[in-house]
Specification:
Helix content: 40-55%
CATH architecture of the largest domain: 3-Layer(aba) Sandwich
Largest sheet: 7 strands, mixed
Structural class: alpha/beta
CATH class of the largest domain: Alpha Beta
Strand content: 5-15%
Number of strands: 15
Number of helices: 21
CATH topology of the largest domain: D-Maltodextrin-Binding Protein, domain 2
Radius of gyration: 22 Å
Shape: globular
Number of domains: 2
Distance between the termini: 15 Å
């Protein structure tokens, strides 16, 4: 559905929204950056999936916005089903002003439903200056920018206990084959190589995406993500075959396939960094560090570290990312103040507030690396930014939720079945294609 470009960001409104600009008619300046409290009396409602420490840290960013503009903020945690919660609030006449959307597919769904306000020239200028082009593309629908990617995840990191690898005489591998060889060496030393969180199907999609991006390349990755390439393509079968070499090797997976299928994501981190370790390594995003630090008192960079997801079959090392995009709803009661908030989120200053608190990466290349709380997070952030336009967004998050984001069905369920029995990659590819065709058609 083609979206009609709004005219709200013209004339006086554009000036009101420009951080540091002077309001029309000789009034008081409206400036998040200038700290003139010109949005006093406004309350911006922000909805997002975050809770716990993530919500607390984001609140620090919102408080910084309040200190500059005078606009109060109210955060509403939606849980994982953002689209359902936001849809019901819109229908009930209680739409939030800003939503932090965690999936490209959901952002597109909101835009195609006509729910979103274009972010306008001021935000677009900040995005062009600070972000790789790919982040603008993921935030746009039909060439119009609707989403500002404020928080990113680096989902191409393998986390490990340095002592376990050192005792086995293993160094960080650079290739897939080296990683499997290193895994066997770790297992031979008495500790299983990998904890795999097979109970959570989303972790298995991340395994596949990293292998596929490195092995097949970004063009095919994009085509598969858009379902312009069928899942029965030989490149998919090849990636599944490669992944199957790990899944079928009981020496490499803590508890074997059955154990993996009974391990959720927090449990996989516990198996490496908990009080009774069962494995030396766990693959997942940079957010592993937060669990290791907060739950098991590991010091990041000392007794918890990472190496980049290794290159596969001579391809480049992959950089798969995820992220949360700030969007503004047309039906929000404080749409203009909401747009001002998003413009503030596009600045390095806003990102640096959360960077100092930890558990955060920004795709904004203008963020000072010194703002991050530790060297490992700093290195992860630099890797994400350095990848530039070669970064690819989590493929399952780009897909319709029925295929890429629903427990017990679609890609999650099919890859769990593949973990249980990886003997027939062609059959798995066929099942994935059948489910994708139905979901994309719907």
């Amino acid at each position: 559905m083609m979206m009609r470009r709004s005219t709200l960001l013209t004339g006086c409104t554009a000036l009101v929204l420009a951080l540091g600009a002077t309001a029309c008619g000789g009034g008081e300046p409206v400036a998040a950056g200038g700290g003139d409290k010109s949005l006093d009396g406004r309350t911006v409602t922000v909805a997002g999936v975050w809770s716990g420490s993530e919500q607390e840290n984001f609140q620090k960013v919102l408080d910084a916005f309040t200190a500059k503009t005078g606009a109060k903020t109210e955060f509403v945690s939606t849980g994982d089903n953002v689209s359902t919660v936001v849809g019901s609030k819109i229908e009930g006449g209680d739409a939030p002003d800003v939503v932090m959307v965690p999936q490209v597919g959901v952002l597109r769904q909101f835009a195609e439903a006509g729910w979103l306000q274009p972010l306008g020239a001021d935000v677009e200028k900040n995005v062009d200056a600070g972000f790789a082009k790919v982040w603008k593309e993921y935030g746009s629908v039909d060439g119009t920018l609707y989403g500002l990617y404020f928080k990113a995840a680096h989902k191409s990191t393998v986390w490990y206990d340095p002592e376990s690898l050192a005792q086995a005489g293993v160094e960080a591998p650079a290739t897939w084959e080296e990683m499997l060889t290193a895994g066997h060496t770790v297992s031979d030393s008495g500790l299983t190589a990998f904890a795999v969180a097979g109970q959570d199907g989303w972790t298995l999609t991340d395994w596949f995406e990293n292998v596929y991006l490195s092995q097949a390349g970004p063009e095919k990755y994009d085509a598969l993500a858009a379902h312009e390439l069928k899942w029965t393509d030989p490149s998919v079968v090849k990636a599944l075959t490669t992944l199957g070499t790990l899944f079928k090797d009981k020496q490499l997976i803590a508890g074997g396939q059955k154990g993996a299928l009974n391990t959720d994501f927090p449990g996989s981190v516990e198996k490496v960094f908990g009080p009774e370790p069962e494995a030396g390594m766990v693959y997942e995003g940079d957010f592993v560090a937060g669990v290791a630090k907060d739950q098991y008192q590991r010091t990041i960079g000392e007794d918890a570290d990472f190496f980049p997801f290794p290159a596969v079959d001579g391809g480049p090392a992959p950089v798969v990312s995820g992220g949360d995009a700030a969007v503004v709803l047309k039906d929000g009661k404080q749409r203009e103040a909401g747009l001002a908030l998003v413009e503030y989120l596009a600045t390095p200053e806003a990102a640096e507030v959360w960077a100092g608190a930890g558990g955060f990466l920004s795709p904004n290349k203008q963020v000072d690396p010194g703002a991050y709380a530790d060297d490992v997070t700093r290195a992860t952030a630099k890797s994400l930014v350095a990848a530039g336009d070669t970064v690819r967004f989590d493929m399952s998050d780009q897909a319709p939720a029925a295929f890429g984001g629903t427990k017990g069905t679609g890609e999650w369920k099919i890859l769990q079945d593949f973990l249980r029995d990886p003997s027939d990659p062609k059959a798995t590819a066929a099942a994935l294609e059948q489910a994708a065709a139905k979901a994309y058609k719907g």
